[in-house]
């Protein structure tokens, strides 16, 4: 059977011997690219993969070691770490070896499987960020009244993320578009380039369901959260003690949104640009940059969402110090001012805001506010604030 490259819109189960092209990315490197470019990309992917695997494995390990971290509010963070770990394990390692060779020497079937795996796990991670933002909004602002976030709710959310991601990444293996090599020939991805109706409809649908919708969820959830915090802060008499933590929370949310946009916007913009103008000539190295850049999210996601969390960081330090001292759970009464302020020392900036909201509401007798802070939750829900 001829092992030349399949047509751009060919599915996994099509006959690959139908046509051939002058350059076969499964047989040799692209002649127009200097070898040092592939070596540079291999070194870059080696660094990104090592950092990502070590960081995300540390997140998974510390969650397994410390029981107090295994709370519903942290399920999505661990799910994000698992997805990022799998992205690096599949896409990162394969990309490192293929760039060392300069072409996708593993063959067409490996290309399809690598393209599916990286896209699938990447979309799981992307939607986990949206689910995390939505859960924070639910836990803090209580739009559903007295319904609390429990293990079954978090598990259902995670199951939705995996099933939804699978639904929108499996079609290219079954004929609706395809997974093919990139312009540079060392990675595999959805087919942006053919310009056919079959591929274009998939790309537009994929762009909407896996970029636009989660972005709207993130912006909407964090936007409502910030507006609520500012509203409560404006009603406080002690603005000097309230504005600072509010600014810290707002700054953290801005960092989260910017990280999402910086990671995924180039990839999304490139896919739409190529889909709209498939005849446009692009430099292969330039065309490969968005995909490689998106893989760096697996490195800074753990830093933003885990290592900047005070209790996660404390547990990590204790784990690596091999200390015999256990991190104990707080038995303070969460309805007392003293207990609330102590909880603030254990949590992040969100706990600070929540504590001041609690004190202010109790002193003012405000019984109408539906936005319930972390400090009013039960100890099992409040002891880990994922901000």
- Along the chain, the helix and strand elements come as HHHHEEHHHHHHHH
What is the CATH architecture descriptor? Up-down Bundle
Instruction: Please describe the biggest sheet, giving its number of strands, its sense, and whether it closes into a barrel.
Output: 2 strands, antiparallel
Strand order of the largest sheet: 1-2
**How much β-strand is present in the residues?**
under 5%
What percentage of residues falls in helices of 4 or more residues?
A: 55-70%
CATH class: Mainly Alpha
Domain G-protein coupled receptors family 1 profile: 55-305
Main location: membrane
Transmembrane segments: 40-64, 76-96, 116-134, 154-171, 202-222, 253-274, 286-308
InterPro entries: GPCR_opsins, GPCR_Rhodpsn, GPCR_Rhodpsn_7TM, Opsin, Retinal_BS
Walkthrough of the structure:
There is one protein chain. The protein has one domain: Rhopdopsin 7-helix transmembrane proteins. The N terminus and C terminus are likely disordered. Helices cover 66% and strands 2% of the residues. The protein has a two-stranded antiparallel sheet. The protein has 387 residues and is mainly alpha-helical. Helix 6 crosses helix 11.
Task: Give the helix/strand layout.
Layout: H1 35-65, H2 72-101, H3 108-141, H4 151-169, E1 179-181, E2 188-190, H5 197-235, H6 239-276, H7 284-294, H8 297-307, H9 310-321, H10 337-346, H11 349-364, H12 379-382
Antiparallel strand pairs: 1-2
Helix pairs in contact: 1-2, 1-8, 1-9, 2-3, 2-4, 2-8, 3-4, 3-5, 5-6, 6-7, 6-8, 6-11, 10-11
Transmembrane segments: 40-64, 76-96, 116-134, 154-171, 202-222, 253-274, 286-308
Subcellular location: Membrane
Protein name: Opsin-VA-like
